[in-house]
Design a protein that fits this description.
The protein is built from four helices and six strands, in the order E-E-E-H-E-E-H-H-H-E. The chain is 30% helix and 32% strand.
Amino acid sequence: MTAITCTYTGDGETELVHGPTGSIIQTDLPPDNGGKGRRFSPTDLLASAFASCVLTIMGKMAAARHEDFAGARVEIEKIMAQNPRRVGEFVLNITFPAHFSPEQKKFYQSAVHACPVHQTLREDVKITVNIQ
């Protein structure tokens, strides 16, 4: 179990401290929800968790196959829904290393669905994946 402590620091901002390491992340409300957008918003962190989860799993898969995965990246966009306000869709643009074949790219796409963050999302959150 990992303990994370979140403290409201005022003016729409929070500070999160990762218990085991002391690493700090600060958040702010986004402008479209009354904030100033000075930092990642909580839903930005959700998108970040999803993207990093996918790449981490892909990297683990690549290590097991002894394939060079350096340079792979995910650009993720979150699209908000209303009533209730929530993330309604994530669009993932995945760029694989230039030397990857279409077969390799297809193999690694399974990581999107295997990711624990994806498995935690509501079933009605739309996931769109584009491969570069």
